[in-house]
Write a structure and sequence with these properties.
55% of the residues lie in helices and 5% in strands. It is mainly alpha-helical. Among the domains are: 116 residues, no CATH class; 289 residues, Cytochrome P450 (Cytochrome p450). The strands form 3 sheets. The protein has a 5-stranded mixed beta sheet, with helices on both faces. A two-stranded antiparallel ribbon has the order 5-6. The chain has a two-stranded antiparallel ribbon with strand order 8-9. Helix 10 packs across helix 16.
């Protein structure tokens, strides 16, 4: 068969003489068009029909990043808007991971009351916590061992210990006020002048000092110097979204985290060796001493590194929970002079002496202070330390129809591999349950028959279950879950209540408070810029060293800059090069700044404690 050459010859000549774009131009076109194409394909993919058994997916423009910016900026607002649009069950994409959210009391029960063999906490949190807490403890061991470790710690959290802690905490706060430079006006006893202090930093320091004095023992407390504080800070800076997504990256924060863990672990183990070698016969009455006597069910005693790592976990987790709660409580108290006055009058009523002074507090009396109790509970309602509690689905899990369903004849199924998320704070600020839900109003807890008191009763007096560390109220269906629920309910909640109560009492007795500025809003420590840059760095670094990747990018941009022919597009291309170079520089700078927490207000913890 013959071919019509009169048709093909003009085209072949055109193609032969056509001027193809240079390599730098092709690179620039790819850099611009590939992201745009991926966005278009991502939107089209979301418009395709999906299985009716899958929960609805929150719409997002950028693939892989998904809803990371909206969730990281304000998870409470994000969940609230998604709930209005999709209901109590929905899925969103977080940096390449599918997160299925179940909201409301039933949603909390679905996640927190689920079987640990199906919904596993360690599959979610281990990459974040293992480098900080250490090996063979918490999420670096089987769940059965974790439950035993919680039992070991709980053995030392007895009523008799709490009685002795009261005076220790009061002494630590008084000592701090008498010597810290922030309270210079107080130390001068000048009642006509006002001093000031940064709430989060100051109360975090008081929290860690009181925890060390009571739980950690005299050796640890006496070594709370600047060096120890720096080790703690380096470990604390390992609690970021970047460290959760990527366990090991060639960044300064990772190196400091690992070095701090090694030094702190050796610090504790040296104290253990010294105690065993001591011939004095004196035995400390603290958590370390208690752990030294404990045995697993198979008869094996705790090894030294396990004791050290449990103490690190106890220090880190407890400080996050209590310091956040105390900070928010004192901010609200300073913002409400009527509550502040009621708290002081309560102290006078219960502890006043004939000479006008105030006697010491006794442990049994703390729970008998209704104003203080209400202030703490209301703070925990509005500002729980954890806004998101996650588990990983190890198998397909049907969602109860009462929680959410696509239709009367069908149910949602959470697919294997999804991260399932509960957010108790959504129930705790739900206007359908709580009157003036977003207002800090301790008086709501005075009514024994009110919503608040009934929610707390449901939380404290629910079905008792022993998960391996003693009977606890399951309490997963309550709209008020300040310390979590189920097998991962906080074992230190009683200590935390004593610690928070005594710090507030000590401060209220000695000082009057007011806010210099407007009441601060919650700081979730991750803004839109951080999320995108974190992932840009981490994505590159997970496959190649960051320096090598950046050198390649800089080389390509340099070629585009120097070898672009003169013409109308030269300015545009060189401007694009400058913007790309600037982004690379910013990403490189963030590798050194990623470990720094913004501290505009008390943070909520990323880790379930």
């Amino acid at each position: 068969m013959s071919v019509n050459t009169s048709f093909t010859e003009p085209w072949s000549g055109y193609l032969a003489n056509a001027e193809w774009p240079s390599t730098p131009r092709l690179v620039l076109l790819a850099l611009i068009n590939i992201p745009l194409l991926s966005i278009v394909l991502n939107v089209l993919y979301q418009m395709l029909p999906r299985s009716s058994s899958r929960p609805p997916v929150v719409f997002h423009w950028i693939p892989f990043f998904g809803s990371a910016a909206a969730y990281g900026k304000d998870p409470i607002e994000f969940f609230t808007k998604c709930r209005e649009k999709y209901g109590n069950v929905f899925t969103f994409i977080l940096l390449g991971r599918r997160i299925t959210v179940t909201l409301g009391p039933q949603g909390n029960d679905f996640v927190l009351g689920g079987k640990h063999t199906v919904l596993a906490a360690e599959d979610v949190y281990a990459p974040l916590t293992n480098p900080i807490f250490g090996k063979d403890v918490v999420y670096d061991c089987p769940n059965e061992s974790l439950m035993e470790q919680k039992r070991f710690v709980k053995v030392s959290l007895t009523v008799d210990k709490f009685r002795s802690y009261i005076g220790m905490i009061d002494d630590e706060v008084s000592e701090f006020l008498d010597h810290d430079p922030s309270f210079r006006i107080y130390q001068m006893n000048d009642i006509n002048e006002w001093g000031s202090f940064f709430v989060l930093n100051t109360l975090s320091e008081i929290t860690i000092l009181t925890a060390a004095r009571t739980l950690q023992g005299s050796e640890i407390r006496n070594n709370m110097n600047k060096g120890f504080a720096q080790l703690y800070s380096d470990l604390d800076h390992g609690f970021t979204p970047l460290h959760w997504m990527f366990q090991n990256l060639p960044l300064a924060s990772y190196r400091k985290r690992d070095a701090a863990h090694a030094k702190m672990s050796e610090f504790y183990q040296q104290i253990l060796r010294d105690r065993r070698a001591s011939q004095s016969g004196h035995e400390e009455d603290d958590v370390m001493s208690s752990l030294m006597k404990q045995h697993y069910r198979d008869g094996r005693p705790l090894r030294d590194h396990e004791i050290a790592h449990i103490l690190i976990a106890l220090l880190m987790a407890g400080q996050h929970t209590s310091s956040s709660s105390i900070s928010w409580a004192m901010l609200h108290i300073a913002d409400r002079p009527d509550i502040q006055e009621a708290l002081y009058e309560e102290q006078v009523k219960f502890f006043g002496t004939p000479d006008g002074g105030l006697r010491d507090v006794v442990y049994e009396e703390i729970r008998q202070l209704p104003v203080l109790d209400a202030a703490i509970r209301e703070t925990l309602r509005m500002h729980p330390p954890i806004h998101s509690i996650m588990r990983k689905a190890r198998s397909d899990i049907p969602v109860p129809p009462t929680l959410g369903a696509p239709s009367e004849d069908n149910v949602y199924v959470v697919p294997k591999g999804d991260i399932v998320l509960a957010s108790p704070i959504i129930s705790q600020v739900d206007p359908q349950t709580w009157q003036d839900a977003r207002t800090w109003e301790p008086t709501r807890w005075y009514d024994a028959d009110g919503v608040a008191a009934q929610a707390n009763k449901q939380y404290e007096e629910g079905v008792k279950v022993d998960f391996g560390f003693g009977l606890v109220s399951k309490g997963t269906v309550s709209p008020y879950l300040p310390f979590g629920a189920g097998r991962h309910r906080c074992i230190g909640e009683q200590f935390a209540y004593v610690q928070v109560s005594m710090i507030i009492i000590a401060l209220i007795r000695k000082l009057e408070f007011r806010l210099e500025e407007e009441f601060p809003q919650p700081d979730f420590s991750v803004d839109e810029f951080e999320i995108y840059v974190y992932l840009a760095i981490a994505t590159m670094s997970s496959s190649l060293p960051a320096v090598f990747v950046l050198v390649i990018i800089l080389g390509l941009m340099g070629c585009a800059w120097f070898f672009t022919p003169k013409g109308a597009n030269q300015t545009l291309i060189r401007t694009s090069c400058m913007l790309t170079l600037s982004c690379c520089y910013l990403m490189w700078m963030v590798t050194f700044l990623a470990q720094v927490h913004p501290l505009e207000g008390p943070r909520r913890s990323l880790v379930e404690e």
